[in-house]
């Protein structure tokens, strides 16, 4: 299905800035929190690769929220 261009653009910016994010999906049981290292595609699907090398399937991505660092 792919994700909206505006969401992809936000992810690119946040990954280059090493910003911690929360990814919110249509499937409420699916959630990701952490840093995105890179974005990639494989077999026609888009993925975010986290700083810990977790591959997150971006299908159904609804929103991206910044996570503020704790002091």
UniProtKB/TrEMBL annotation:
- What Gene3D superfamilies does the record point to? Rof-like
Q: What is this protein called?
A: Uncharacterized protein
Species of origin: Thiosulfativibrio zosterae
């Amino acid at each position: 299905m792919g994700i909206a261009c505006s969401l992809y653009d936000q992810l690119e910016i946040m990954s280059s800035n090493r910003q911690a994010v929360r990814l919110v999906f249509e499937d409420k049981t699916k959630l990701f929190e952490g840093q995105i290292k890179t974005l990639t595609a494989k077999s026609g699907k888009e993925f975010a690769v986290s700083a810990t090398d977790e591959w997150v399937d971006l299908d159904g991505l609804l929103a991206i929220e910044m996570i503020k660092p704790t002091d």
